[in-house]
């Protein structure tokens, strides 16, 4: 049986990207789609987020090229920690051939929104924000 706590756990996505516009656009899109979102400006800030926030995110969207700590070092430390080693990572990169063997998926920047939605949905289901109903009049 799913509790409210595990429900939140299944909806949280951490976005790590040094480009403020990209990070905010991704966060806004994901929130619009019904996900809970956390964000960090670089890998070091991402690790700090993971060490202080509970519950842990269900998924991490990660840029590779960042100052302070890049995406490769972030993944090395993430997977080296038993408490975070199993967190899935989707790499978002403008590089022609991003070497991200430890990631579950790699999406090319600029990110195709439909591809992003499909890839994220493989790992996390959004919380419904709207209720759709079909209201039909009874036949006369």
Give the end-to-end Cα distance, rounded to a whole number of Å.
Answer: 43 Å
**Helix percentage range:** 25-40%
Number of strands: 5
- The whole-number mean of residue pLDDT values reads 82
- CATH hierarchy, class: Alpha Beta
Describe the structure.
It contains 5 helices and 5 strands, in the order αβαβαβαββα. With 140 residues, the chain is of the alpha/beta class. It has a single domain (4-121), classed as 3-Layer(aba) Sandwich (Rossmann fold), CATH 3.40.50. Strands 2-1-3-4-5 form a 5-stranded parallel sheet. Helix 3 runs parallel beside helix 4. The longest helix has 13 residues, at 20-32. The N and C termini lie far apart (43 Å).
Kindly summarize this structure in a few lines.
The chain is an alpha/beta fold and 140 residues long. It is built from five helices and five strands; from the N terminus they run αβαβαβαββα.
Keywords:
140 residues; disordered N terminus; 5 helices; 5 strands; five-stranded parallel sheet; alpha/beta; Rossmann fold; globular
Annotate the secondary structure layout:
Layout: H1 4-9, E1 12-16, H2 20-32, E2 36-40, H3 43-52, E3 59-63, H4 71-80, E4 89-93, E5 105-108, H5 113-121
Parallel strand pairs: 1-2, 1-3, 3-4, 4-5
Helix pairs in contact: 3-4
